[in-house]
Design goal:
The complex is a heterodimer of chains A (574) and B (88). By secondary structure, chain A is an alpha/beta fold. Chain A contains 23 helices and 22 strands. Chain B is 24% helix and 41% strand. In chain B, strands 2-3-1-4 form a four-stranded antiparallel sheet, covered by helices on one side. Chain B is globular and about 40 Å long.
Amino acid sequence: MTAAATAISAKAATAPQSGAQLLVQTLDRLGVDVVFGYPGGAIMPVYDALTGANVKHILVRHEQGAAFAADAYARATGKVGVCMATSGPGATNLITGIANAMMDSVPMVCITGNVATHLMGTDAFQEIDILGVTLPLVKHSWVVRDPADVPAVIEEAFHVARSGRPGPVLVDLPKDVQVGMTSDDFGFHYPNEVTPLDHAAIAEAETLIRAAERPLIYIGGGVKIAGAVEALRDFAERTGIPSVSTLNALGSIRTDAPGFLGMLGMHGTKAANEAVQESDLLIVFGARFDDRATGKLNEFAPHAKVVHFDIDPAEIGKLRAVHVPVIGDLKAGIEILTGRMASASLAIDPWIIRSTSNAKRNAFRYDAPGEGVYAPALLNELSKAAGDSFIAACDVGQHQMWVAQHCEFSRPEAHLTSGGLGAMGYGLPAGLGAKLAKPDAHVVTISGDGSFMMNIQELATLRRYGVALKIVLLDNSSLGLVRQWQELFFAENYSEVDLSDNPDFVAVAQAFGIEAFMIDQRDQVADGIARLLAAPGPCLMHVLIDPKENVWPLVPPGKSNGEMMHDTRFEGDM
Amino acid sequence: MTDTIQIQIDRADGSLQRLIGLVERRGFHIDGMSLSDEGAMRRVQLQVRGRDEGRCTENLGRQIDKLIGATRVGFAQSTYGYQSGVAA
């Protein structure tokens, strides 16, 4: 629902301004400091107006890079990310990035140029109905048809993108609207809408928690989005209830905190998945029961009742029936619940001891045999070396799961990953966006040889702006996760996964003007990480790893989370 | 067999396409549809039917509620195939 907006200023009619000028002024008024984009014919008036503006434009080398960078900028800062592109191919190149933001509830405003309104619908040069194309991928979208509407639409776009459950929005600006002149300039103020929390439901939640013998906190990405990290940690510490996390929520509770059992799901920890299967009450905070988290849905947490806190009513009961829904702001909801729990402590010590000792007994091991680089160990060491200012911008594949399993995270903003969409090519532009947002942090893109090639052109953007992003390129000369599935589930029929003819990545990076070096032995890892983190500018560490290395543990597709496959090298010890 | 949903929706660019696309994308057939315009608003009545037994009409209603510029104004449920999504 659209909020009741109130006009806060109506400037006296002065010199007429163009729609493009009004766009740039409105971005400035809204506090936008960075826009990622790529110019083209149908958005040239906007680029003309950007000259000399306060808003900094980062010229990427492919529009998909702009969308991913804006997405990561938003995830790292909590602000709205902004990207822009021209009509037709520029706009369609944004699409994967828009879908990525939609799947992970990232606030993003995408601005596209389009052909003039009288040409729309005529198959004009570079004309695409981008509003129609993106309808399933956006929270909302607009075509602006009058230059005087530009400020109001842009302000509404920002409001919609960040309010409630955040998401991407698209504003399509036909060229005649960009050049059209108007003397009107209205600003609007959108009040924050607050869904009143149902205190009776929170009381019911308390009753279920007090009655449970094996309660478990199931943390989703909504905790970070709602700014509820401290509230969650307080609740977990005061009640002692163990917790598991989705991929997107890692870091919401420090991954080294007592009571945290790890990620649940397909590549989750044994302790997390077993706790879920044993639990008699799931306390779900801002999660959506994604299939990668639940495995076979009708065998997921078979003994558990469900208490579900979420701001999105449509998530309640979408996939799993809920006993007590609490709809509204997560931070306030958790705080009220914590307050109610203060009156008496829970008698769940046997459960806490059993689940946490299971986690200790099955902790990941880094003593795999061999002299080659063991990627899980490298990633664990990298996150420790980078410390609390570490931000990992992941690509998609085996390395993404290793990052989730083996890196230590002190906060959810430290882990930027394409969770819902699983979009290869996210890592490099995401690292670019995150490093621009957090220049003092140790921002590291962790990529694979498949993913890296999908947006490798953004090395030029790093070089152009001197962005000191660090890149760990884990190279197994194959599409590793697909290869792993072919090994395990397709009778070792390795179809189209061999990338052994990859280019020399060190030479490629150096050709872009970026420092790069290669390691391939375990005893080179510590020095390699030190050199990478100390490099003053962008730097790439190319790491050759064993192509046969797999991600363990693994819940086979279609199976219950109770049916995990494990690394046989460590069997007998576990 | 079908549930009937009445929606009031603004006449902005793509609003009807947005509504129909949402219903189909969430796994429902549209068996019937009628439209009437009232000034800047449009009233739409849809007869919907889940593509399989797992489709929850009430949840579809909640998805429609989230559309910017749309308001669900009526919701008549048949008993067939209906799941509330909230455990008893």
